[in-house]
Amino acid sequence: MPPSPVIVVCAVTLISVLVKVLLIYKRENVLDNVLSLPDCAQLVTSGRLKIPSSLSNWWSKVDLFPSHAGKEIVRPVLFDNIPAVLKLKRLPEKCLSIAETIRGTQTTPLEHVRRSVQANYHEGVTEPLLNRIESEDLESIFCRLQQPEYFFLLWASLLKRSSPHFPRLLGTCGEVYIVENVEEVLNEEFIRSKSWNEMQPVINSFISLTEHLNHVSIQLCDVKLDNFGWDPSTQEVKMVDLDTAFFTGSLQEQFRERQCVSDEDCHLFSCRGCCDVPNRKCLVKIADNNLVRICREIFAPRFMEMGLFSGAPLAKKERLFKLAKNCGRFQMDWSDFRSAYQPEIAQ
């Protein structure tokens, strides 16, 4: 006789709870090991870095199941009494040491780190960034630089004119880096909580974000709601997950290495590529842009999921959905989209 549905539900719930508890203790142990390292321990003992206990709110999504797939820990903390997030690379992808990667070469550790950065992020390498690398503990920063998000946050912190769309990089210790916490993560609850008028600054900030990314030649390849946050104090959208961001040239190189039988084989997450079918090789060509991805993944509703246009008044929804659909299917410049997003449609 099969078990009753009640027993099955109870068993599944119990297993789920046990898995969560095990994850808590695993991540607490990892965190304890990291915080015992000299640089991190100094931040803790000085009171600059404060770690709230995750056991008091073990159901918290950010403690247990970070949306950052490449991270072992994405943990809310206080840094200099500023709400922040501590991030650590996922352990199975442990960073390589300088000694491991320099073996067999004739370069110095510093030159090796500089060459590695140039090879991986050549479009974004600036003299201030190289000077910053030289001023830090090479082993620690070499490890952090193997995490694309850290590179982009460091790069953005050194811009002459700071961007409102990058969270601030607040501090580091060893392999860990600490960024400002973005107050509201975008999700369906966020969409439901906002009136259409309240949603206008969010949509306009996304349009400005695409303009900025175009200016600095950065492509976002994991475009989804919860990879963005909303800062009510600045009225700006911020990127809270940059693990799959690329400079345009670096993304094109990713396509160059791929074989294919159709265009789908050339896609990299949200970024679309094109297949040279007769030669079975991906073209060194990006078939969409940031605005197209945001129209497709953020503005337009998807199957069983809301988009930012979902809260529009009924009389305006059809035109807005059509605009997002057209934008998501074709190359469209941010200025063209802004022109199409007319006041009589949007407000």
From TrEMBL:
Note whether Membrane occurs among the keywords. Answer: yes
Question: Matching Pfam families, A to Z?
Answer: PIP49_C
**What's in the keyword line of the UniProt record?**
Membrane, Transmembrane, Transmembrane helix
Q: Where do the FAM69 protein-kinase domain residues begin and end? A: 145-327
Superkingdom is: Eukaryota
Which regions span the lipid bilayer? 6-25
For this entry, the protein name equals FAM69 protein-kinase domain-containing protein
- Native organism is Ramazzottius varieornatus (Water bear)
Source lineage: Eukaryota, Metazoa, Ecdysozoa, Tardigrada, Eutardigrada
